[in-house]
Backbone:
C-alpha cells in the first residue's frame, strides 16, 4: 500500500488531479486543489489555534455538505480521531456519543446546535465550531442559501452556546498555520471512533485505524477498476458521509480514483434528487435498496436516460430481489449488492463488476479478505451449509472503544464474528440468511425474518415489510409481519392466503399489522426493535 495515513492520501491525490472537480453539492463544485487547501487550513486551525494534539477526539455532525470532506480530511491530517455523529440524533443519543468518546471539539451544523446546547455541560467539549449549510458555496449562493435556511424555512432553532467559532472564521485563522509541521502518523493510528449497534447490540464505537480505511478503499477499488475509468467518473453519493459505507466508498475510494462525488444533502427529497441526477449525468450510483425503490416510484426518474450509467451499487442493507428486478427493467442496469459492517471499515464482499450479479447474494469476498462460516461451537461448516460468517482481513477493526469484554465477544484469534448467518457456494458466492440475534425459533425450527420479508415483498400489493418474533407460550416464539400496502385493496386474509402458498407453516406470521410506514435507520434499515414497540 502506497500511503501511511489518510492525510498522505489526500495530499497525493489532490496534487495529482488538481483542478478537476472532487465534490459538488447544491450545484456548487470544489476542485481537488480546493479540497486540499481548505483541509490544510482546517488542520492548521485545530493544531495552531485550538492547540489540539494527536489522538484528541473531534465530533463531526452534519449531513452531506462540502464542509464534510474538508473537515474529515483536515481533522485526520491534524492527527485527530474523528467521531461521526448522525445529525438526526436526539439530545439523549448525542449525550451517549459525546460522553463516551471524550471528544474535546465539535464541528456541528447550526441547525442542530440547540440539541448540543442541551447536553454540552455533561461533556468534555472545550471547542465548538458552527457551520451553516451554505458556508462553502459561492458568495451569492452562500448568502441566499443561509438566509433561506434560517429565516424562510426556519430550520435553525435558537441556542445558548457561547464562545463558538464559525467554520469560515476557522478556515481563515487556520491559513496562518497551514504550512506548519503536522504530527507524524503511523498506519495503525486511530482514525475513527465509529458508533454502531455492533454485532452484539447496544451503542459502542468501533476503533478504525488509518490502515483499516486505506486497506478497505484499496480493496474496493480493485474490482471497480475493471469497469470504471480513473479520473473520469461522476458518482452520486446519496448515502450520508458520516455513515461508514459512504465515507469509505465515496469520500475515500472514489476520491482516490479521481472521481467527481455529487453530495446529496437530503435524499428523501426525491424530486430534487432526480433533478440532480438528470443534471449531473452520473456514471455511478451509490444507493440503498429503499432509496432505489423510492426512485423507481418516480415517473421523472424512470424517464431519465441511463445509457451513461456504468455501475449501481447497493449497500447499507440487504437488497430486495423485487427492487433489483424493477431497477433492471427501468434502467437497463444491474444493481451490485455488497455486504459490510462497521467493524470491517466496512466492506467485506461485493458482487463482481465483471459478471452479471447473482441477485440474492452478496457476491465474493474482497481481495485479501478471508471468510468462513462456523457452527455454534465455532467449527467451520462445509460449503453450502449456513453458519455464522467470520471475517479476517486488514479492514477489521482493533476492537470497541474502552469495551474489552464486548471486543472479546466478537474478535477471536484475528477473526471478526459478524453475527450474521450465511452460506458459501462452491464457487465462493455468499448468501446471507439472517442475523443470529434476529432469528426466530418456532417450535424448535429456525425462522429468518429476511426470508419472510422477501416473500411478502414479492406480492405486488406489498410495498414494504418487516418481521419480528414475539414470545409464545405454545411454540416459544411466533412470527409477526408488519406491512406497508402498495394497494389499498390488500386485506389481511388475502395476504395470509398468499403466504400460505409460499411459506412452510412454522414460517407463516400469526399476526399481520398494516402500517403507513415502517421505522427505519438513517440508511434505510427496518428497525426491528421499534417494531416491537408498536405491538
Residues:
Amino acid at each position: 500500500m502506497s500511503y501511511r495515513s489518510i492525510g498522505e492520501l489526500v495530499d497525493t491525490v489532490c496534487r495529482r488531479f488538481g483542478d478537476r472537480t472532487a465534490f459538488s453539492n447544491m450545484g456548487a463544485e470544489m476542485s481537488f486543489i480546493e479540497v486540499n487547501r481548505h483541509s490544510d487550513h482546517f488542520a492548521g486551525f485545530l493544531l495552531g489555534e485550538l492547540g489540539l494534539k494527536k489522538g484528541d477526539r473531534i465530533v463531526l455532525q452534519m449531513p452531506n455538505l462540502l464542509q464534510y470532506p474538508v473537515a474529515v480530511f483536515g481533522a485526520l491530517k491534524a492527527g485527530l480521531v474523528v467521531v461521526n455523529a448522525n445529525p438526526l440524533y436526539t439530545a439523549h443519543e448525542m449525550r451517549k456519543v459525546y460522553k463516551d468518546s471524550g471528544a474535546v471539539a465539535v464541528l456541528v451544523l447550526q441547525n442542530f446546535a440547540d440539541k448540543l446546547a442541551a447536553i454540552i455541560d455533561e461533556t468534555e467539549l472545550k471547542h465548538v465550531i458552527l457551520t451553516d449549510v451554505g458556508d462553502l458555496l459561492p458568495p451569492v449562493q452562500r448568502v441566499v442559501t443561509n438566509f433561506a435556511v434560517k429565516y424562510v424555512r426556519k430550520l435553525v432553532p435558537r441556542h445558548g452556546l457561547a464562545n463558538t467559532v464559525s467554520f469560515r472564521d476557522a478556515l481563515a485563522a487556520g491559513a496562518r498555520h497551514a504550512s506548519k509541521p503536522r504530527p507524524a502518523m503511523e498506519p495503525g493510528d486511530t482514525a475513527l471512533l465509529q458508533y454502531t449497534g455492533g454485532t452484539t447490540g447496544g451503542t459502542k464505537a468501533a476503533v478504525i485505524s488509518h490502515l483499516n480505511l486505506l486497506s478497505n478503499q484499496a480493496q474496493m477499488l480493485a474490482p471497480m477498476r475493471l469497469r470504471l475509468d480513473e479520473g473520469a467518473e461522476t458518482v452520486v453519493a446519496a448515502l450520508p458521509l458520516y455513515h461508514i459505507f459512504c465515507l469509505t466508498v465515496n469520500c475515500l475510494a472514489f476520491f482516490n480514483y479521481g472521481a467527481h462525488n455529487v453530495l446529496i444533502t437530503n435524499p428523501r427529497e426525491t424530486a430534487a434528487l432526480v433533478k440532480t441526477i438528470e443534471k449531473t449525468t452520473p456514471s455511478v450510483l451509490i444507493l440503498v435498496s429503499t432509496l432505489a425503490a423510492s426512485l423507481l416510484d418516480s415517473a421523472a426518474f424512470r424517464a431519465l436516460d441511463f445509457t451513461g450509467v456504468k455501475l449501481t451499487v447497493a449497500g447499507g442493507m440487504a437488497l430486495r430481489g423485487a427492487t433489483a428486478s424493477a431497477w433492471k427493467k427501468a434502467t437497463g442496469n444491474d444493481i451490485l449488492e455488497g455486504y459490510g459492517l462497521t467493524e470491517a471499515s466496512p466492506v467485506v464482499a461485493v458482487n463482481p463488476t465483471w459478471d452479471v450479479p447473482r441477485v440474492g447474494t452478496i457476491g465474493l469476498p474482497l481481495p485479501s479478505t478471508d471468510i468462513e462460516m462456523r457452527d455454534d461451537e465455532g467449527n467451520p461448516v462445509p460449503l453450502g451449509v449456513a453458519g455464522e460468517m467470520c471475517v479476517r482481513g486488514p479492514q477489521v477493526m482493533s476492537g470497541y472503544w474502552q469495551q474489552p469484554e464486548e471486543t472479546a465477544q466478537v474478535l477471536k484469534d484475528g477473526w471478526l464474528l459478524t453475527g450474521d448467518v450465511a452460506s458459501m457456494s462452491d464457487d465462493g458466492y455468499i448468501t446471507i440468511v439472517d442475523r443470529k440475534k434476529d432469528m426466530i425459533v418456532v417450535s424448535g425450527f429456525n425462522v429468518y425474518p429476511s426470508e419472510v420479508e422477501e416473500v411478502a415483498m414479492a406480492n405486488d400489493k406489498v410495498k414494504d415489510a418487516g418481521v419480528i418474533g414475539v414470545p409464545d407460550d405454545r411454540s416459544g416464539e411466533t412470527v409477526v409481519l408488519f406491512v406497508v400496502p402498495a394497494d389499498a385493496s390488500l386485506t389481511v386474509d388475502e395476504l395470509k392466503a398468499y403466504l400460505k402458498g409460499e411459506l412452510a407453516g412454522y414460517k407463516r406470521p400469526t399476526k399481520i399489522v398494516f402500517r403507513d410506514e415502517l421505522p427505519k435507520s438513517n440508511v434505510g434499515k427496518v428497525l426491528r426493535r421499534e417494531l416491537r414497540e408498536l405491538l
